[in-house]
Structure formats: C-alpha cells, structure tokens
C-alpha cells in the first residue's frame, strides 16, 4: 500500500475507535457550544479545514525560498506562523514587531535584488468557518507576508487563553499546516510570533545535518551538530522555533503527531489541567518510539537536535539568555541577567539569532520586554540583520553574498544598513 494512504487509514482508524470518554462528558463545556470532546471531529469535519488546504498550499508555493545547504543539496523552505483572525492589541503589537524583525533581515535574492525573510513567511490565519484571511493580509501584506486561512468553529472565539477552546485547536492548526508544507516537499521553519529575530537563522540550519531542529526552555549545554535519533531526555523542548526538513519520515512524524492529538480525546483531565496532550508535550513521542525501535539507526530515518541555548535563547533560559561556554552536553548553563546598567552584555547578544518570550505569566508583559531587547540590540550591537551569514540561493546570488558577508563582516563591529550596502557595492 502507498505510504500516504496507509497513513491516512491509520489516522482514520484512530478516529473511529476514539469515542468521547466519560470524563469528557462530565467535564463542563469549555465554551458555549464548544465541547472539548468535539474538537478532533470538528477538525476533520465539514466545518473544519479543508484537506488539502488549497489556499495554504498556494501560499506555500508562492513564498518558498530555494536554497542550497552546506552539502550543496537544494532545499525549498518556507517560514510559517499562526495568527488569530482578529488579533487583539497586545498581539497586534507583537505580530508587527515579529514581522519587522524578519523584514529587516535582508539578503540578495536569486534575481540579484534585495530579498527579506518576511517575504517567505506564510501566516496561517486561525479563522472561524467561512472567514477569510483578508484582515491578516491587510495588516501584514506590506511586509511581503502571505496569509491563508485554516478554519475551525473553535476559532470563533478570539481568546487564545491557556487551555481555552481556541488554544486547544491551535495544536491542530499548527500540525496540519506543517503537514501541508512537508508533504509538498518544502522544509518549514515554524515560529511563534512572541519573538524577535536578530540575524538570519536559515544559514545556521542549512549548515546542520539534523532533520529536525528545535529550541528549548532549558539553560543547558547541548550539541546541535551531530544528528541524534532522539530528543535529549529531561530537556524541555520549545516548539515555538521548529525547523523540519521535508523528508518522507518527517511527513510521517507530523501525521503521527496529529493522530496522537486525535487519540488524546479521552485524556481531557479537567478545566484546570485541560488537555494532558497538546502539540508541545506530545512532540517527543514519535522520536522516542522510533529510537526504541531503531536505536543507533534512528538518525538515518529522522534525526533531531535541540538548538544551542546561547544562540536561540528565550526568557526561560535567562533574561539575557544562557552561558554554556565550555560545558559538556547535558550540563547546566548559567542564566544571564541584566547588568546594573539595565542591559544585556553586547558580546552575549552577538551570538543571538533570536529572542523568544515564553515563561512570562502576563501576556501583555511580553511586548515591552521584546521591545527593550530590540532597542538594546540596535544600540549595543547594530541594526537587526547586520551580523547575518550569507544565504546560498539556487540560481545565483551566492558569490555576491559571500562578498557581502566578507565586507560587512561577522567580526562583530556594528554597521548601519546603509553602510553595509555601501561596503557590499564596493566589494562587487
Ligand atoms: C527596521 O528597519 C527600519 C529601517 O531601517 C528601522 O527604522 C527599524 O527600527 C528597524 N526595526 C527593527 C525591529 O529592526
Ligand atoms: C458557510 O457558508 C456556507 C455556504 O455559503 C453556509 O451554508 C454555511 O452555513 C456557512 N457557515 C457558517 C458557520 O457561517
Ligand atoms: C561564560 O562562561 C565562561 C566559562 O565559565 C566565562 O569565561 C565567561 O566569562 C562567561 N561569559 C559571561 C558573559 O558571563
Ligand atoms: C542570574 O540570576 C540567577 C537567578 O538569580 C542566578 O542563578 C544566576 O547565577 C545569575 N547569573 C549570573 C551570570 O550571575
Ligand atoms: C524597558 O526599558 C525601560 C528603559 O530602560 C525601562 O524603564 C523598563 O522598565 C523596561 N521594561 C521592561 C519590561 O523591561
């Protein structure tokens, strides 16, 4: 039997055998008309997203970037993020800072013209049935973003509060979107929008052999170079930054992941604890299963690495990230704090690709923190994007970009965007 067909049948079988458990029926509806138990069925049913999601597929094709990895192999790649249909004020601010940072990370496109990371972002709009992605497109189109809807009646509420109906449905939207890109043969960099980028992370991913690269909430040392068959145990991953290479086994991973959520229908553990299973805490299931079966052969099928905490920091790893210098994988790092002057150290910031803001209890506190980190970076290091490594694109640009890189230097000296362009022109 063809693999995709088998996969579809396995998922269907799971659906058929899964019935709402008693616990579900006893638990209170989490919102009017939206019982937790109906979520998986809503997602597969008539009111849920269409499979294949046509608009999403078109957006992925339009936004994909053709790149060469360090081994000279071609990859197609797209950035993806989820967004509510009507983002409320705090989210709107965060979304626009997120887009602005991606917009300011520039590189020379295949046509020799300036290109930007935000022009390769697909925003998946978590939309109620029949709603369009127009509001997102109006708010984000000037950054080159393309929006496509993913429908569910669970998105009729715009409250993405922890354990609420829309929050729970978000897991389904995320994995379905990943599946859409991976099954088109396009690598995905899936991003939460409560983060700000400082340099282009794509060259870093393309230098690595790991098929799946994910960030973590732990300030601990790890190796993100040698591909591993399992995720390190006892190291909480954060799927808010997740790179997945489009391989047949990656498609299967995403399919399994979705099926795990469908099966978790019976694991609703109450209003206060919500779902025992959601996207992030089920992510490692596939890897541990595959590793148990294949042991040291597992990396051949699908390898995974947790990204270095000093390069991909977040607020859980320290207000200024995490120091893991000279530590062995698994060793506890040192959380970095603000200096007496209220800033992070510039040499620490130079190694950052991004800063992500989980581990903040009050949602509205995230934006001021990210804005401060952005201002700090611009003041002490330089413009966003100025320390980016070159990106090798299929069909050219590569040589010119190497010159650009040499001219702007990653030696750490801050240069303005205008100055780096002047240097680049001189280098040509
Ligand atoms: C993006 O670039 C513009 C134009 O150079 C600049 O005004 C703005 O501060 C930058 N924003 C970020 C977040 O880097
Ligand atoms: C969506 O549109 C269809 C066809 O126009 C209509 O039958 C259906 O009632 C609509 N659903 C909602 C939730 O508005
Ligand atoms: C990071 O740790 C190393 C090794 O302990 C130390 O030498 C260095 O000063 C630390 N960096 C900062 C910024 O604290
Ligand atoms: C930062 O603060 C944390 C918690 O107070 C502490 O454990 C850590 O050692 C501090 N880091 C540095 C570099 O002093
Ligand atoms: C941001 O920086 C300003 C000025 O340095 C400071 O007053 C404010 O407390 C900071 N806010 C956060 C959330 O860090």
Main features:
single chain, 428 residues, alpha/beta, eight-stranded mixed β-sheet, 15% strand, disordered C terminus, binds 2-acetamido-2-deoxy-beta-D-glucopyranose, transmembrane, cell wall biogenesis/degradation, Glycosyltransferase, EC 2.4.2.-, Nucleotide-diphossugar_trans
Description:
The chain is α/β, with parallel strands linked by helices. It has a single domain, classed as Spore Coat Polysaccharide Biosynthesis Protein SpsA, Chain A (Alpha-Beta Complex), CATH 3.90.550.10. It contains 15 helices and 14 strands. The strands form four sheets. Strands 1, 2, 5, 6, 7, 9, 10 and 11 form an eight-stranded mixed β-sheet that branches. Strands 3-4 form a two-stranded antiparallel sheet. The chain has a two-stranded antiparallel ribbon with strand order 8-14. A hairpin with a 5-residue loop joins strand 3 and strand 4. The protein is globular, with a radius of gyration of 21 Å. It starts with a helix and ends with a helix. Bound molecules: 2-acetamido-2-deoxy-beta-D-glucopyranose (5 copies). One 2-acetamido-2-deoxy-beta-D-glucopyranose binds next to loops.
Bound ions, cofactors and other small molecules, one mention each: 2-acetamido-2-deoxy-beta-D-glucopyranose
> How confident overall, as mean pLDDT?
83
Bulk shape: globular
The rounded distance between the terminal residues' Cα atoms is 54 Å
What oligomeric assembly is this protein in?
A: single chain
What is the makeup of the main sheet?
8 strands, mixed
CATH topology label: Spore Coat Polysaccharide Biosynthesis Protein SpsA, Chain A
Low-confidence segments, ≥5 residues, pLDDT <50? Answer: 1-32, 398-428
Rg over alpha carbons:
21 Å
Alpha plus pi helix count: 15
DSSP summary, beta strand count: 14
| Broad CATH class | Alpha Beta
Question: CATH homologous superfamily name?
Answer: Spore Coat Polysaccharide Biosynthesis Protein SpsA, Chain A
| Class by alpha and beta content | alpha/beta
**Share of helical residues:** 25-40%
How does CATH name the architecture?
Alpha-Beta Complex
Helix-strand sequence? HHHHEEHEEEHEHEEHEEHHHEEEHEHHH
Number of domains: 1
